[in-house]
Amino acid sequence: xxxxxxxxxxxxxxxxxxxxxxxxxxxxxxxxxxxxxxxxxxxxxxxxxxxxxxxxxxxxx
Length: 61
Prior knowledge:
With 61 residues, the protein is mainly alpha-helical. The chain has helices spanning 2-32, 34-40, 42-47, 53-56.
């Protein structure tokens, strides 16, 4: 029981850290290259302003 609880807590913490790191990296990339994103993807903001994740993560599988 203790091992399972610790593993679940560890997995939750790891997933949360991965999400936080991904968001921080996305913000750093946007802050470092705002002009490049605007030049490469000028239509996404006009087409779908309610979907900001397309501009944050333009490379989706």
